[in-house]
Amino acid sequence: MRKYLIWSLVIFMTWSCSPSAQELFEEGIRLLESSQYQKSIEYFDRALDKNPEFTSALNAKGVALFQQGKYDEAIEAFTASIEIDPESYKPFFNRGNAYLEKKAFKEALVDYNMANGLDPKQVDIYYNRGLALLGLEEYEDAIFDFDVVLQANPNHALAQFNKAKAQLGNNDPVGAMESLSNTVNLDNRNGAAYYLLGVTQMSAFGQKEDGCTNLKMALSLGFTEAKTWIDDFCAE
């Protein structure tokens, strides 16, 4: 799946009798990395009590809230981090991801554009921005972003799959067939990709036999939407 959140890597250090904001932050990171999200927030809050402008602690707190599905609270934390330090791409990227989960695609796109402007080398930004553009039906721009990802990693199966969806939206079934074939070659457990491949083969190219084969594969992988097509078009 897509990589959602970014926080600073740190080295764990032995606490003194009265832990500093940095030490509290580091313990929070340790708890965050072990999926103890609520406990990590307690440490980030203690770090922020000592240093209210500790932007990394605000960003990491947002990550912990995001992981709990508390997207509005996460957005508040990321926004506070941005207000203190607007030069870091991380809270913009993370806030964009929270908006993406809320299907607030326009807001996500604004944040991804900001993150990209601050650090254009981060490939994850292009992938997630592609998802937001796909949600906005901005298909050509989405294809561009997925292509950037695939130039960096041609074996990114989800980038291939989402590029195919954008190509279908952009009325390019030939390109979509290639991307979907690449997807299933890279990930033979993606039932949705087999489904789209089968539907495209049948509806755009009249390839009933190959289409039915892929639809049946989709159904075998648990993609139940394929059953209607199979019942309607693939009966023996």
From TrEMBL:
It comes from the Bacteria. TPR repeats lie at residues 21-54, 55-88, 89-122, 123-156. This is TPR repeat protein. The keyword Chloroplast does not apply. Transmembrane segments: none annotated. Residues 1-21 form the signal peptide. Keywords: Repeat, Signal, TPR repeat.
